[in-house]
């Protein structure tokens, strides 16, 4: 029985190390190969996003998924001023906020952010690249998403993720910065 407990502990440690590795090596990818993103990969990404924590378990998110070349090309102009990454991407996922599903008003953006983080980390784990394109609060981008995807007015486009096999390799970065940490209280210098 003790050996089983030790083996379970070692598995949890290994899983933790893998999670930390994924977090520390994920980078924003803006160049993609022509390799298609599969439906199985998209389903895993959506499952991961929908397993994010949310306030009161409201899950106030909706997703628009496209692999349509014409829509991906249209996103380049409608959302990101002609940025080539959408013309290279093989899929895109738009996370939207449905405020009517919020259990606690005002928490929807945090909930959608958790879903977005899960999506990015799992994309990296699957060998896909993506980058978070902020939509909410940027009126021209919101209008572009509404135009390309037909998002209704009561739904808020939140963030858009072009997806594909990375055509660039970016090294991991050490971003830990002790100067940004305040212990016990805010310090001024």
Brief summary of the model shown:
43% of the residues lie in helices and 14% in strands. The chain is α+β, with helices and mostly antiparallel strands.
Give an overview of the whole structure.
- It is built from 6 helices and 5 strands, in the order H-H-E-H-H-E-H-E-E-H-E.
- Helix 2 (39-50) runs antiparallel to helix 5 (108-125) and helix 3 runs antiparallel to helix 6 (139-149).
- It has 189 residues and is α+β, with helices and mostly antiparallel strands.
- The mean pLDDT is 92.
- Strands 1, 2, 3, 4 and 5 form a 5-stranded antiparallel β-sheet that branches.
- The N and C termini lie far apart (55 Å).
- The protein has a single domain (27-168), classed as 3-Layer(aba) Sandwich (NADH Oxidase).
- It has helices at residues 2-25, 39-50, 69-80, 84-88, 108-125, 139-149; strands spanning 61-66, 91-97, 129-130, 133-134, 156-164.
